[in-house]
Fold these 3 entries.
Entry 1:
Amino acid sequence: MKLRYGWILAPVAALLGWGWAQAPQAQPTLPSSMPPGAVLYLEAKDFGALLNDWNTSPEKAAWLKSSNYDVFAKSRLFMRLGDAQGEFAAAAGVEPNMAMLASVAGSESALAIYDIGKLEFLYMTRLPAARAAQTVFRGALAQWSPRTVNGLSYSVKIDKNTKRVTAFSANNGMLLLATREDLMAGALALLAKQPNQTLRNEAWFDRATRAAGGRGELRMAANLAQLVRSPHFRSYWVQQNITELKQYESSVADMVRSAGEIREQRVMVRAAGIADGVDGSAAVAQLARLAPATAGLWRAWGAPSVEDASALVEWKILSPRAGGMPVGKQAPSAAGESQPEGSEADLETKIDEAPFSAAAASLHAEPIRALLKQTAVDAVLSVQSTRPQADGVFIGQESAVALLGKAAWDSNAARAAVLEAVDGLWTSGKLGLDWTTKQAGGRTYYAISGLSPVVMAVDGKVMILATSEPLMQAMLGQLNAQPATVESRTVFAAQFRHTAERANFKRMMLLVERAAPAQEGPPEGREPEYFSENLASLSTAMARMDSASITVRDMGNAVTQTVTYRLSK
């Protein structure tokens, strides 16, 4: 059962790039053989090699045994894909499993999806005639109907119950497989040099591939303007950022591998003409240098809004929390006639003090917003790490936020704004609230002790707030460092150190979710815990990924994203 669905995951796994083999350099010609109308297009320089890398990788073996796979195998998406596989098998007379995929995996290959809801696709690959004659389809083709177009033959089979169509062709070193006969006929006509429209000539594809430049070992092009209209895309797209995607017409992602890293180069083309673009590279570089080498996660971006910068200070430093208080949806019960309010039987209602107000015991963010409005913010840096506590049992978290102002910060005003913001959250009338002056490496910072410690430092245009003194001291030590190296027009940069955070994360989630140690593999008779088992097992399967970093550049008419996965030796 597990290997049955490997054919679905293979292109996605290849995009992540597990394995090390280098694909041959070949000129892209397959888009010119694809009929127009595709919403998603994948192209591999050597699909057979990529598939072999995935099948022989330790990541595949570990993932198939993981709780993460166990949960995925029970998901609605997995079941829907299973139904589609069953319909394909009924129509073709061939089970769409890993054996089928391996038999039709040639060198240069392409898969174009024309309807993601119905999974209508056209697949073509360069495959020698001898191998094409030995595919798993060879025994089933006797039951198919033969066809010819422009002198090239193909076979078609239609399932009477589901009306699913399967078309197969092997001509002149090319193997084609389609779920619509018009796609097969159109592709063969193009291979026969007929002057028809092609995917390569479509405006969205042309603009996207021109912006992307040279292709990688694996390329994925998406017609975002069409995809965001699909209810299936909106339902299953994990990022749930459809509104943000609506500004883009198309995208291309290229994957390139080397012995020590995997790089994914993405280009997203804007739909509404050419914009001016934003160059926040200088501001991002100034703050990115402050991220300590031991930081588990850091993110730096330019031109934040006052609301975003204020919310970051609130949620990460002054009032850390996972979410807001639940909203009550039930009205309070009315007092009964036999037990009126204030009677001797109503002993639970306190009449000598005011009812508790959640609004009163909350952070007052307006002083922070006023400070940020007075000294506008050029860029912001968020730093987070996990750290074992002194008791040896619990795992704590430490966070820091650095703000780069357009002008120098007023240190006294900044400290006063923080005290005013937390008054009522930790105490009343600022009782017990005060700053203690401290030194580290010749630099001054200030600390508020208590259940939720806060430390602050101001150095010209840089203001740092943190939840731990060791983290503050580490960032102060970076103030003399040279600005980080970033490309021009960089608007966002981030890094996640997977190896450093794996053990602490798993331990912390284990303490939160359950008392007994998590077991390897899917648990028997129960749903896996989401963090300590489901996500932790995915982290274990991806143990070779030491870190991941991303750089986002705004080029005006397009946004580029470079994602680099560094692998452990």
Note: The chain has two domains: 3-270, 282-319+359-476.
Entry 2:
Amino acid sequence: MSLPPVFRPRRLAPLVLVCALLGACASGGGDRVSAPADVLYGQLKQASKGYETALRQAREGDAEASELSLRQSLDLLKQASAKCATTSGCDPQRFFSVFDRLLRLKDGDFDDVPDLSGDVDSSQAALVTGHAGAASLPQAQRSVTLLHGQKLSQLIAMNGPVKAALEMWLTQRRPYLMDAWVNYQYLRHEMWPAYQKADLPEALLFGMVAQESGGKVHAVSRSGASGPLQFMYATGMRFGLGVDNGFDMRFDPAASARANAEYLNEQLRIFNNNLELVIGAYNGGEGRMRRAVGDDPSVSFYDPRIYDQMSPETRDYVPAVLAAAWLFLHPDSYNLRFPKIDGAPGSITLKRAASLDELTVCLGSADGMEEGWFRTLRNLNPRLDPDATQPVGSTLQVPKPLERAYAARCVDGPWPILAADLHRATVPVVPDPAPAKAAAQRTTTYRVRRGDTLISIVRKLHCSSVQEISEMNDLKHHRIRVGQHLTVPVCR
């Protein structure tokens, strides 16, 4: 990021070399540490102290001295970690521990001194709302200080599950993480203010959005959880996410962020600000978490008494959220580069009737969006059916850069004509033979008993499926109730 002339140190991205080299470090066959390894550990300690000196000099405004201290400490750290690969008895965990400690150290509150890592680009640091004191800090720096007075980085234990989740985000799920980042940047002006008002860190919001929906506002899970933060129907209703003129408010990004923030703050009070337990409760249910925790809300989520009682999904969910939040704070330190996104909100007034589908076609890859603008238009206008034509004079929410692109591409010329022609295209309808077959199928009635689920009912029948019974009874989100009479197939 661009730093003031007062202090312009090197970025700490080279620290990621430590992590890259750790995998190559060899471990000795016993507890005895070799003399060469001892030398490396001494250099490691010296590099760590040099980094702390750089931070202190930065706070004191001595830019030149801080630059020198930072460069020397990083060079020493890289040299020591590189030699670990060929040094008998070298323990890579020591190098990782220093790397982890330095990341947490830089998350300290330096008031108006910029974050030394520069992990978040200045284009991402524009604030939506906030007082003057907060506005003077880079966004990442402000994020780590807002969890009820606790720094988020101090609440994320860099243990095995979180490390595994970091690797997953940086490898197999990397494209998903990048999509979540882009989607979130365009939704940020709607979602972040609710978290800011609730005194919750933005990194946590991003972690939950990334894990829950990838920033897709209309996401619906197999269990019926809906929206960018995946609220179940009953929980959504408890926090004011009802139905407004036929629109499910769980799909509203601003409303869902508010409800999510209220839920987290409620659970933080219950679980004594134990963030891991709260995130686990969000996924696995607060009732289940309360029963597991009992009278000890200080217990770690990873304690076998808690961890072993959680579902596999929840055991993966908690570290995944925390790892995504950690990467939000420290992307460069993990060799990750989020794209620069101008997420400033804007709007257009339609000069000619068009659907969101048609606008997507005529906008094409405007402003460098290679994947097109369909997802963003849907996210910013969640109440609109993307296939429905909106009349002239309708106002749609769009990213600010698209205002000019709309005027240039979608009002006159060939693109709106092409888009309208494609939208009016019809596909021949082939009669479905399924209804006739279904009509001949024999059915009977099943009365739902306490403890029944669609899955358990299907297992009793031995010949049907959850989908079939759900469709036969027009069930929404597979919900059933005790005493309900279901139409089920007669199984021979």
Note: The two ends are 69 Å apart (CA to CA).
Entry 3:
Amino acid sequence: MDAAGMPTRKTGEKFAFQAEVKRLLDIIINSLYSNREIFLRELISNASDALDKIRFISLTDAAQLGEGDRAKLEIQISADKAKKQLWIRDTGVGMSKDDLVSNLGTIAKSGTSTFLDKYASSGDANLIGQFGVGFYSIYLVADHVEVVSKSNDEDKQYIWESTADGSYSILEDDYSENPDLGRGTLIKLTLKGDAEEFLETATLESLVHKYSEFINFPIMIRKEKEVEIEVDDDDEDDDEDDDEAGEEDADRDLDNVDLDDLDADAEDVEEDDGESFNTKATITKKVKVQEWEKINPNKAIWLRSSTEITDEEYGDFFKAISHSSEEPAHWTHFKAEGDVEFRALLFVPTKAPWDYYDNFYQRKANVKLYVRRVFISDSFEDLIPRYLSFLSGVIDSDTLPLNVSREMLQQSQALKTIKKKLVRKALDMLKAMADLENKYKNGEELDEEDDLVEDDEGRRREEPKEKEPYTKFWQQFGKAIKMGIIEDKSNQHRLAKLLRVYTSRSTETYTSLDEYISRMKPDQERIYFVSGGTVKELSKSPFVERLIKKGYEVIYFVDTADDFMMQSLLEYNDIKFQDVSKEDLKIDDREEKAVFKELKEEFKPLTKWWKDILREGHEDNADLETVKLSNRLVETPCAVVSSKYGWTAQLEKLMKAQALANNQKQAFMKGKKILEINPHHPMIRYLKDTVEENSEDEQATRIAQIMYEVALLESGFDVANSKGFSDNLYSMFRDWLGGGIAETVDEADDDKLDEEADQEEIFEGDYHDEDGVGGGEHYDSEEGVDDKFNFINRDEASDDSWREDYSDEL
């Protein structure tokens, strides 16, 4: 019994989990990694860790690093196509025999993790390889692996080899096939038949740029190049006699050729008196040589302090990661601390790609995630929102939760924190661009942190390098910000601050919402806007007539995204937006309200009559809800506005243009239309007087229908029955011209048609039928007969007398 009086459970027999190594390797190789090219990243990461280890150890024991070539800390990559082998070598800490058994012979045993445990009290060595499985990704591309390694702890060099069959072997290296490493590790991969692409230098170089570009240590790749050297003419003749032997010697000897000595060997011999002479004729010969080239010249500048980095360095780095020749428009460089620590460097490009908006919903930000400078991913659906996909840059963190394959991030609270900080910093960067432009426009003094330039004498002058940085940004990426207003509710207000628009007072330059509010009238309670095709069209829109006349400023939305954006952006700084093309327009004028109320009673019979004649017997006008007086029109007799929650005319056009538009859904969302009439317009007054005398007047009815359809067009809507609309217009024009004119035209047309029919009958009967000449190639028209026989009038040739006169021609 235990202390609580419960029966004590017996201790069971303990067993160890059994793992079938071959099966485990198969899972790691075929299930852990989604892309086999990842093997090179893993090997370079391991090599980088080995180099970091020896450098870390040498801080307290310099002798461990060695001298001469042994002291060089670098990674070398070379390929042998003949043997189908890929070599990756580092001059790092190396491994002893026991290390080979412990680290490579035990799956999921990480030498890096052990190293960190050992030196935990000495500080963080900043190493990435801590899972112990990355090495086995080599079997994605190789069917035989040799690991040659030499540690400072042992005098001997050992070889570890395996074919991933569940076993491995270790033997002492006799140096018959492998170089004396001195210290470090050489991995020799014999590639599978379907992996020979990784023997191509261009492929290897591309993978290094993708995954390991910012490794701290030089990554050298062996390249074959063609150089020109001068040789004696006699030697050239000998080479031609035995060309094959010469090529073999060149391939064997030029591996170690020193290019700096080639020119020296070809120099003329100088005598003591300074005169040079050459006893043999020399010629130029092209030979192939092998040499090492560094392929990761770019540095991880985000790890440095921003005060130490010049604008030129930032520009060069942006060009390197974005593959652009343009300078960046702006950038932000920051370090985030707290629950999640990371460094980030984000750039705003100067220009958008030509197809940026064509693939907007599939486009990803050109921002790469690194963990200790090793590339992890560039898929940022969870970190960079789509509307910021124009950004380029890097994020580097030491604390992100990665899965074992390091190809993706695990879902966690850390991701949400990083995303929030990234978006905040990106929007702050855009706001800084806008503020800088405003300071220049307003002639304000620039702060020390503002972007300044030097004049020819090196003095600082208060003038930004780019006078309109944000305007140019908006022209390129403004639509993306509008999509952000729609999609990102949590940052909608910050994004709305970045919004730029045209207005009735600013038709050629952009205005911000803050500037609009600063110009609002004291009694103005709404932000007025209207959407349409162009600024010129909207400036003449009937919807803005009275607003502009009374001194109100109206925003002109001319972009296709604006109508969708305004469905989400309902207010700004607690001021509601008002679409002036909708029915609920409110203009604050108490004096006019009283007059307007009297006019509504006066015109009530006309509005009722107009609604009835438009609705009765006209299915095309079924979406007309009512007819009422307007307080927004000045010069236009009438206009059609949308219901409060219905689509505007512009939005209706956009939805109709969708390839997969749903007509039933559109009918519901379009809402109702309201015909608003201007009680001060003479045409409306004429209709009012006419209807009061005779409500059955046909002309008044026709005019009312035509005016409604014209108002539809002028308001941006489509006329449902375009044929009926045109017939009504033509009918009205014909009545206006007068009945006599119309009858004369009809009679003239009938006479002409009758005359042509008679002439055709005479000509075809006498010529084609009786003479038997078919086809009418030359004589099947009146014009043809006149030209051939010089007839003046076809009626005069109704008999056959003309045949005798023109028998020769026939």
Note: The mean pLDDT is 78.
